[in-house]
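We were asked to recover a plausible sequence for a given structure. The inputs and outputs are reproduced exactly as logged, with field labels preserved.

PROBLEM: sequence recovery
POSITIONS: 202
GIVEN STRUCTURE:
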């Protein structure tokens, strides 16, 4: 089962990347059996915490979203995560030949590399059940750092490239990841202004 890789990426990442490369799972299967499941953690936890627990900044009163607003924003977050993983996987495949990856491994392993590298960020979604901004920021920052390291570690194994090329390949992919992140933030502001904005409880 693909979900078993989530634990292995924290305990024995090199062996897990080698197993992922041998699987050659189709992008559709990786999405259905892994990304669709794990990417739902953060939106579900965010819905519960923002609609039912609320959060405070400093000593201010508890702030909550209405259930409909929290649901709408959680669904949009989920869709943004799915698009982000796909875009990152597409970038892995698109740049593969430039950095010497074997072409026959590219279609299946590029999306797998992106999906499994995002595992720490997916699992960090559980932290949203404790809606304290500084705590959530610290957890997601640590998860992002470990996810970046996982991608760097997995590039030579999964894509079949030399270790020295992985540094430049990984740097290029991190740049793409930042562009995707900024794009989703800008998109969120546009959507909030014109379509679905947060609605706070009274």
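RECOVERED SEQUENCE:
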């Amino acid at each position: 089962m693909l979900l078993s890789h989530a634990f292995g990426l924290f305990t024995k990442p090199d062996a897990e990347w080698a197993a992922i490369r041998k699987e050659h799972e189709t992008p559709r299967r990786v999405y259905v059996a892994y990304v669709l499941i794990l990417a739902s953690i953060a939106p579900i936890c965010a819905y519960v915490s923002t609609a039912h627990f609320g959060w405070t900044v400093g000593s201010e009163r508890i702030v909550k979203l209405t259930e409909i607003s929290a649901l709408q924003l959680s669904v949009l977050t989920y869709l943004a995560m799915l698009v982000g993983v796909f875009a990152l996987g597409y970038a892995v495949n698109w740049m593969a030949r430039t950095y010497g990856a074997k072409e026959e491994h590219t279609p299946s392993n590029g999306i797998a590399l992106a999906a499994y590298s995002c595992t720490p960020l997916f699992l960090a979604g559980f932290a949203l059940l404790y809606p304290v901004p500084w705590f959530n920021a610290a957890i997601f920052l640590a998860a992002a750092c470990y996810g970046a390291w996982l991608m760097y570690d997995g590039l030579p194994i999964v894509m079949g490239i030399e270790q020295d090329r992985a540094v430049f390949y990984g740097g290029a992919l991190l740049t793409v990841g930042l562009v995707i992140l900024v794009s989703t933030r800008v998109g969120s502001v546009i959507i909030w202004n014109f379509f679905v904005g947060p609605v706070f409880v009274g």
